[in-house]
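Entry details:
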Amino acid sequence: MKKHFLTDLKEKVRKPFDALSTKLSPWAEFLGEGRPGGIIAMLLLSFQFDIMKAMFGLPFPKPLTMLLSAILTIILAEILLLVVRLVFGGGTRPRIYFFVTWALVCTANLFGVQMYIVLVPLIMSLVFVLAVDIFGRCTVAFIRQRRFRQIFGYTAGGISLAVIILYGLFFRTDNFGKSRVTFYLNAAPAVSAEAVPGFDSYLENGTYEVTELSYGNAADSDIKTGIIDISELATLEDRDILDKISDIGSHHDLREAPVRGEIYLPTGKRNCPTLIIVHGAHNADEPSYLGYAYLGNYLASNGYAVVSVDENICNDLSVQNDSRAIILLENIKALLDENDNASGPLYGKIDPHRLAIAGHSRGGEAVAAAYLFNDLDAYPEDGNLKFDYHFDISAVIAIAPTVDQYMPASHAVEISDVDYLLIHGANDHDVSKVMGEKQYNNVTFTGRGDTLYRKASVYIMGANHGQFNTEWGRYDLEPAINGYLNTANFITAEDQQKIAKAYFRTFLDTSLGIDDTYSGLFSDNSSYLYYLPKTVYITDYMDSDFENISSFDGSVNITSGDTDGTTIDCEGMKHWTFKPDIYGDGGEGENYVLDCEWEKESAPAAVFGFDADMTSCGISFGIADMREEHADDPSGLSYTVGLTDANGKTVQAISPVYVYPTLAVQLYKQDVLFGSYEYKHQMQQVILTQNMFDQDTGFDFGRIKGMRIIFDGSDDGEVIIDNLGICH
């Protein structure tokens, strides 16, 4: 009885499925007849999507990487088909090709989405690849049958084509969503500081005409220079299998690295202060070194000699950033030799005692390594490789640098007594975290002396990685996947480059002793915002006159600061501690911060005891709001600073400096679709001056005994604090 019941139930359950199978049989036959079309479509998709370039960044010509992408699909599919047939005794080639292509496309798509929403690229890739497969099958079936005998053929072909078109429109639509820059600009209080007179004209081209010269070993170079051998250096680097594969398709030779670049000179001027700039990793077939012509022409028109060094051999052969640093130093050596050549066009143009170096991306890391190497007598990885540079380099500028890709003798790059400027964009996808913050913290000053050294950083909302170089442009991803970037968040390339010009010239003028009129741009840019492009600037600054109270580094005694008698305590906190604020990939010199976290309905405060005279200086500290749930709160961080003097009197300042909330950035179009964000917690400097506090209380600013930073405890919160001290 029971058996009869189960058999009857089984037949009833199977009946609708059998009926559906019968109905779908002609459709399945139609798609089955188009199986070769599915395989062809998968290979064309792999070819067009250029998976080898998107995923591995091989420095081969694009047609070759596209062909390799299709070959990779064939190899993986055939291997998987063999395994499936050996293990399971079945498996069809079209299904295997579909699965492999979907897996590869999905893996590449993961570069264009926040990692915590991986379901999005999984589903989007599945739908897209399925549409391509069906369209390929329908096309071949139609060719074979001369017509669509089933309405399914028209329906399936039309729907799959529509999906492909919609996916293409999504991928190719440049402006998707809206900019967050306007929201944060409207959130911040109006600028009350007076505009700095003359800064608008300072940002314009100067009075000098610009002469442009090329140098290198090519026949048409204006200045003939030689080659250098970096093969020994490359053998000491930790180059992986992909690096070695890239050598196969290269037309460069490590034994013949060219000394080559472009020079921008103020016509008729001699002994020019000089900037030498290097690019980073990019397509080796594009002249990345020409992408800084806007800087070269602007600075040269204002009296600078500017040299942009071609380091494409590093991109073609995937050598590391120590090689980039040495190529830069060898270029400087060759240029200074030409500067002494009385018969050459560069004779006497460069002032060898006023040199600055700058780099972008991997080049930004390379310039720090170059400054380190400049003072060394041997290569840290092998003392047999001797150095003899010792140039008068006074300033280092890094745009969105990498950090720790090269670590000398397994140490972080630490440099001292040099001016250092860090520029980074909040919408940078290539170097999405401010890795340069680690290098910024690893620039130290040995003390107060005759020379004032300084370091500054500026974090720019809406700036991406590539627009600082006109050859790189709007997209920070490979063309196969750059359509996922949400470029609606970007400021324009013109604005981004105007910001670079403003900060470069002001920093160079100040560091090289040309003119320090506008040096206040780095410590407090509020008076300069009238002339700079409209966006958010989060800045940090320190100089060798800074008197440290507590950096929160190097001690497990969290109740004591760096100077004698300095105390640290926190009230009303869920917990507080010193923790590393790491932006690099490891190594020594990690920066520690005071981390304070509180719960709702508490009275949180960070309390510091120290002696200070504030009559002619200010108290400074860095702070970042870590509350991601408050990213849309335009009021920013609510806090009050209280000071206590030797007589026990107190004064307060309520939110004396506007502290931006956590910046919520939508790097990808998928973020816009699903309302997801990447949150940016950037350290912002607060400088407290006497005029920010109550004035008629009889408070003695000459004998300060401590400071309290009181936070709004009406909701859960967290902040990090760093580098408390006295600034002059």
